[in-house]
Amino acid sequence: MWTYNDAFVGLNVWGVLLLGLVIFLLGCTLGKKEPAHFPPGPFALPLVGSVFNIAIKQPHMYLTQLADAYGNVFCIRVGRDKMVFVCGWKMVKEVLVTQADKFADRPHQAMIYRLYNGETGSVSTHPLVVDAYTQVLHTPSCHTESDSVFVPLEGLLCSNGKTWKRQRHFAMGTLRTFGLANGTIETSIYQESQHLRQAVDKHKGELFDPAAELNSAVANIICQVVFGRRFDYGDPNLHQLHATMTEFIYLEGSVWGLLYNAFPAVMKRLPGPHQRIFTTFQTLQEFVSAQIKSHKLDLDPSNPRDYIDAFLAEMKDNENREAGFTDDNLVLCSLDLVLAGTETSSKTLQWGLIFLIQNPQIQEKVQVEIERVIGPSRFPKMADRAHMPYTNAVIHEIQRMANVVPLNGPRVASKDAQLGDYVIPKGSSVLPILTSVLFDKDEWETPHTFNPGHFLDSDGNFVKRNAFLPFSAGKRVCLGEGLARMELFLFLVGLLQKFTFSFAEGVELSNEGIVGVTRSPYPFKVRAAAR
């Protein structure tokens, strides 16, 4: 029989639970005091922080706007973790260049660990991976000294310490060996450009979406370096590769990736688009694994044909395993090269067509310079760039306005550091925002206007700009920067030599873009009129 005593006991239970909840929330909010001179930031709710304040569609714009309120160094709490954001050329330079030794490492991220070492795709059993991850789980701040193993251990983009240095050095050496040093890649781009122009010409001046052709052209260059082969533009495997990469890159850099890193224990068990991050990555791994399996059938270690062959040759020496020369890491490093080597350049070329069509007078001036230096028939060479300052300036302005990698990659402070008036404690995650540099009003005369004059002096000569950072800077500057510059010049000049591009009459395209890891234009169609 129910009595007032039972009610009193019930009230006591609810009172204890309520008191416990209040204490817990107060602990989350007040329990962890910031060190002196830590960067300021917006108000954060208990448990969730400011994660739901971040603009879903254009997070880079939201973050750069916060700099107006809190200064160029500020902090946001996402879940229970805090990240320091750095804006503007001067402060970003401090992180990437001046104090590069303190900010060279990547922080531990739950999503990256699961992708590279977790339950989907390749699961590394390398003892160094296991040891390093165990150390991180029992360390208050997710960092190690700059010369030690760091989780996630593998891959090119997210590894740290000696493994990262060794793999980066190996990849750069391979790029030089298979083309950048001997002109082979320039020849490959010349040949691929022929295929690209033929694919564009097949549309006979009718409207078409150029994304597929541009993706195929760019992907075939890095595929020749990594896999030793190119794919026909109609190959369904190539189309599937593009579609999977696009979905993965978008979801990884979207709010879904942010939520997974903030609340991994919860998000791991919830259905939703974030689960596609892992299934698409597994599909990409399987594609790369098939290429590696094919290479192993006819490998000649004394005569490597591409990156995979060279990596497999290094694996013959067991001492190289500690530097990441394993089967699992070959998949991850190859995939990193293909993703990075395809997405950024292809998206930049797509934005380039949009900006040139929106500014037909600039497109015409580029074509006049092409006529003067190259003529209508001879294919462009990299040596021509020195004699084409206006075209060079236009390509640089396309890269600046395209802002293809708006947020850069996160870093972790390996030592206490000073940024402006603020102290960044060892172990803090730091994210330099490249958008804030490419549109820094103190560095660019007309930051939000497409203006090739940003890269020209009063005499029309090309001028380098310090705040031009589409490839990032410092120790983790894009290792494919030389290849990307070559692709952008040769592909774009090759197209403009043969075609004049336009939209359908009355069509206006948005410059807002779709933001994931990279910033892509919304699907659009162009008309390519033969010249």
Structure description:
The chain has 531 residues and is of the alpha+beta class. It has one domain: Cytochrome p450. It has helices at residues 4-30, 59-70, 89-98, 110-117, 127-137, 161-180, 184-201, 211-226, 236-253, 255-262, 264-267, 275-297, 307-315, 327-358, 360-373, 389-402, 434-438, 481-498, and strands spanning 73-78, 81-86, 411-412, 417-419, 422-424, 429-432, 499-502, 514-515, 519-520, 527-530. The strands form 4 sheets. It has a 4-stranded mixed sheet with strand order 1-2-6-3, sandwiched between helices. The longest helix is centred in the middle third of the chain and has 32 residues, at 327-358. It is globular, with a radius of gyration of 25 Å. The relative contact order is 0.15. Residues 1-11 and 120-152 have low confidence and may be disordered.
Distance N terminus to C terminus?
Answer: 94 Å
* Mean residue pLDDT: 86
Strand order, largest beta sheet: 1-2-6-3
CATH architecture: Orthogonal Bundle
User: What is the string of helix and strand elements?
Assistant: HHEEHHHHHHHHHHHHHHEEEEHHEEEE
For the largest beta-sheet, the strand count, sense and barrel status come to: 4 strands, mixed
- What CATH calls the topology is Cytochrome p450
Radius of gyration: 25 Å
